Amino acid sequence: MMDLTSYSNKMITIEKNGKQSTINIDRLKSAFFENSHHSSAPTISPPPVVVPTSTKPVPDPSPSSPVSPTNSISLPYVTSSGRRVRFNSRYL
Asked: Where is the segment annotated Disordered (predicted)?
């Protein structure tokens, strides 16, 4: 726990774990308390979520006619970061 021992216009002296430290006020951040009782701002509740009561029929994931892939056109390989990888046809 930190205790404020003294302060001036630009410097603050705190005591932390039995040691005194002098800190410039520009290095400090403002404190923000999330559940403050002194807050004058109104609380906003999220809008209610509406769940549909009926479900729509889901189409069958299997295609009605099998599609055979063509060997002449190959899709580019895409990495997880989105880069396209092109392999040299000489090494395939």
From this structure: 36-75
Min mean pLDDT across 19-28, 29-38, 56-65 is at: 56-65
Contact (Cβ atoms closer than 8 angstroms) between residue 74 and residue 86: no
What lies within 8 Å, CB to CB, of 23 at 6+ separation is 11, 12, 13, 14
CB 76, CB 84: distance < 8 Å: yes
pTM, two decimals, is 0.30
Q: Token pair of 74, please?
A: 């190959």
Please write down the long-range contacts of 21-24, taking CB distance under 8 Å and 24 or more positions apart.
none
Q: Span 51-66, mean pLDDT?
A: 61
Number of helices (H) and strands (E), helices first, in the chain?
0, 5
